[in-house]
């Protein structure tokens, strides 16, 4: 069974903006056992509204008999800084004021978030990570992390994500934040401020997470007589209600801003120069119907990172295909590992021949 833990960092933590957090905590999940060589670590970075419990939202990838069997691997995932599943975020109490942060919580970037992750990694004594895997926002963070700590990560599995968030993606996120701002409660310092706006924001997001084909197949009316109360309309309402029951508008706002700020080229000369610095062996995965992180973004990464591998998932689920088409994803990762093994065997054979 997976285990839940909390990491406490009790020193000031300076953010990229210059703001300071007076310490923080990260909730994290571990699954499996670290081998004597400490060489079997898999670290997972979750998406925007995910938690550290990867056995919940990526259950077909992790578990007994699955690709990442806990009998063979030691798997770690931390709830992001700024999150609402046990890590320090806007609803946490500020130790300086003894009141929740609410909108006073400082803005984060993915660089801040992975620096917090890395403090946890160091606390766990994990000097090497066999595979770092993340999708969407988690893929952004994973790519940033391999650039910050090139000696730590041996492999990167980067799924349905990018090197720099696009104007298209930023526009989607801002449209969602506009919905939150329209909620009259957003200006109040209460835990449920902006919740009605959050419901609308989630409905907007679904249009970027899914695809025309998804709605056509699952939400089409069976007959021709209906003029109101359509399935697709009720589905949007349902998705908004469901998220509002488990998430808060503050964290949604904060992490969507972190996604917008993603740009590995910042301070590194350019995106191309940054990607040329990647040392990890990389598998870039795209979804053929992804509207939010279109496959052009993963093709670009593959072209820029020397020696990398690319795989395309076929799906009618759009961006969410990276969570749905797990069998395809698992096969792609197996082939990635196998290709690496074959290459190593060929190199060893050539050395012997010499």
Automatic annotation (TrEMBL):
Domain AB hydrolase-1 residues, every copy: 41-325
Chain sites annotated for binding substrate: 202, 320
Catalytic-site annotation from UniProt: 136, 290, 319
GO MF term (any one): homoserine O-acetyltransferase activity
Cellular component per GO, a single term: cytoplasm
Keywords: Acyltransferase, Amino-acid biosynthesis, Cytoplasm, Methionine biosynthesis, Transferase
One of the GO BP terms on file: homoserine metabolic process
Localization in the cell: Cytoplasm
Pathway: Amino-acid biosynthesis; L-methionine biosynthesis via de novo pathway; O-acetyl-L-homoserine from L-homoserine: step 1/1
Enzyme class per UniProt: transferase
Record keyword Kinase present: no
Transmembrane segments: none
Enzyme Commission code: 2.3.1.31
Homology family: Belongs to the AB hydrolase superfamily. MetX family.
Function: Transfers an acetyl group from acetyl-CoA to L-homoserine, forming acetyl-L-homoserine.
Complex and partners: Homodimer.
Record's protein name: Homoserine O-acetyltransferase
Source organism: Pontibacter mucosus
Gene: metXA
């Amino acid at each position: 069974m997976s285990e839940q833990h909390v990491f406490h960092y009790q020193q000031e933590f300076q953010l990229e903006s210059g703001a300071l957090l007076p310490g923080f905590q990260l909730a994290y999940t571990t699954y499996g056992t670290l081998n004597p060589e400490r060489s079997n670590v898999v670290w997972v970075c979750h998406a925007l509204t995910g938690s550290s419990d990867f056995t919940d939202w990526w259950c077909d990838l992790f578990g007994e008999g699955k690709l990442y069997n806990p009998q063979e691997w030691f798997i770690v995932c931390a709830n992001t800084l700024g999150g609402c599943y046990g890590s320090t975020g806007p609803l946490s109490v500020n130790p300086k004021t003894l009141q929740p942060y609410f909108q006073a919580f400082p803005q984060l970037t993915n660089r801040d978030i992975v620096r917090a992750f890395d403090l946890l990694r160091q606390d766990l004594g994990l000097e090497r990570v066999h595979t770092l895997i993340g999708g969407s926002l988690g893929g952004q963070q994973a790519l940033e992390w391999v650039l910050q700590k090139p000696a730590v990560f041996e492999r990167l599995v980067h799924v349905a994500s990018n090197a720099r968030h696009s104007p298209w993606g930023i526009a989607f996120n801002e449209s969602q934040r506009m919905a939150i701002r329209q909620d009259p409660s957003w200006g109040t310092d209460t835990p449920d401020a902006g919740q009605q706006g959050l419901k609308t924001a989630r409905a907007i997001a679904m249009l970027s997470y899914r695809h025309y084909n998804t709605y056509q197949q699952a939400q089409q009316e069976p007959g021709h007589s209906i003029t109101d109360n359509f399935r697709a309309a009720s589905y949007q309402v349902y998705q908004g209600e469901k998220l509002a029951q488990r998430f808060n508008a503050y964290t949604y706002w904060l992490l969507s801003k972190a996604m917008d700020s993603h740009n590995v080229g910042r301070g590194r000369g350019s995106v191309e120069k940054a990607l040329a610095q990647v040392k990890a062996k990389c598998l870039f995965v795209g979804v053929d119907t992804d509207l939010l992180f279109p496959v052009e973004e993963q093709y670009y990464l593959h072209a820029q990172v020397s020696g990398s591998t690319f795989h395309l998932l076929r799906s009618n689920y759009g961006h969410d295909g990276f969570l749905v088409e797990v069998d395809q994803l698992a096969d792609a990762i197996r082939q990635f590992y196998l290709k690496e093994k074959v290459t190593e065997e060929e190199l060893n054979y050539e050395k012997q021949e010499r």
